[in-house]
Amino acid sequence: MYKYLAELTGSFFLVLALGFTGDAFSSGLLLVAVIYMGGQISGAHYNPAVTLAFWAAGRLQPGTLWTYLVSQVAGAFTGCLLIYFMTGTVFQTAPSSAASPFQYITVELLFAFLLCMVYLMLFLTRNFRNNQVYGLAIGLSYAGILMVGQPVTGGVFNPAVSLAVTFVDSFSLGGSYLYLPAYILAPSAGGIIAGNLFAFLVRSDHLLPEEV
Description:
The protein is mainly α and 212 residues long. The protein has helices spanning 2-21, 24-38, 48-56, 62-87, 101-124, 126-129, 134-153, 159-169, 180-201. Helix 3 packs antiparallel against helix 4 (62-87). The longest helix is centred in the middle third of the chain and has 26 residues, at 62-87. The radius of gyration is 16 Å and the shape is globular. It starts with a helix and ends in an 11-residue tail after the last helix.
């Protein structure tokens, strides 16, 4: 129960950072905070792509996978609804008008893959897991990913946040739904690819024995 509450809470605060500031660096710093809050409880995924990566790497049971996904979506929905009721609007997600579907889908997949590989390396390998800067490393990685990728994709490389934003944006008859399939499928595929590649590349004796 504590794991799922941690995932819900972290997703909630991540959405607040993305929605209230729209700033990549601020969102990355907030992610640092919630990773240290929930890292020892749930693994601090806060992102279905990351959860799918852990599952694809063989470090998450299917039952836990689905419960994590539900918790993340619930947290993201709660955060988006709070932003909407406080401001009357919610941040929109839409790719650059100069980007083709191939371009923004590819960028979403690649940078979600990168984020997931950072998570897997820092949380699952013996060499990195005892390093207490793991939260800072992930948060700054996410900030960099937003800075580089967001001008192209307009997304946040997080299917739970994209789903919640699209739902709340529909209250104002926004057009975020047009890009929702890309914002869900591309990062999810990036996470699954990362998990499988991690399992293939990293020797078993370099991994922590327990499931995370």
